[in-house]
Amino acid sequence: MKVSNKAIDLGLVRRAKAGDYQAFDLLVLKYQSRLISTAFRFVKDVHIAEDLVQESFIKSFNSLASFREDSSFYTWIYRITVNTSKNFLVSKKRKNELLSSDISEDQTYEIEYEDTDTPEDLLQASQLKKLITETIDQLGEDTKTALTLRELDGLSYEEIAKVVNCPVGTVRSRIFRGREVVDEAISQYKQAYKTKHLEVTK
Description:
With 202 residues, the chain is an all-alpha fold. It is built from eight helices and no strands. Helix 4 packs across helix 7 (157-164). Residues 101-116 have low confidence and may be disordered.
């Protein structure tokens, strides 16, 4: 029978709790790259992101006894990393950068066209991607956080609820609202583009 990823991590956590430092090292090696990427979205500096992740792992190791094992280890360390990154920004009085996440290449809102060979189509794709980025940046902090964790980091609704410490229903509502705003912006852009294109071809 295949052992789940959560069960494997739980086994390592229990070994670490019993004093097996190498077991915790395996967890660090497994997740540090993903967490550095997460921290980088907040601080925009890879060296600072690496330091914040190291700090997060130290915090998690020191409080390992408090890990109740009812959630996955990744969800727990992810939340610690996010909070550590936010606290860093607050300490530097850079609250406006707390959620200034860029749309990465693996983002969910992919722009697809039947033919993207023409300069016109490429320009439209670029403008649309910029529009999505700007629309997400203008969302409220709570909505932006939920949407970013879902669309960019691929977390489940349950994992996001644990990260932001609110009910799953609230998370779903925030993500739905965020997607609605983005979809409306895309719809308006496409309509304006279509109207402009028709006027040019007349």
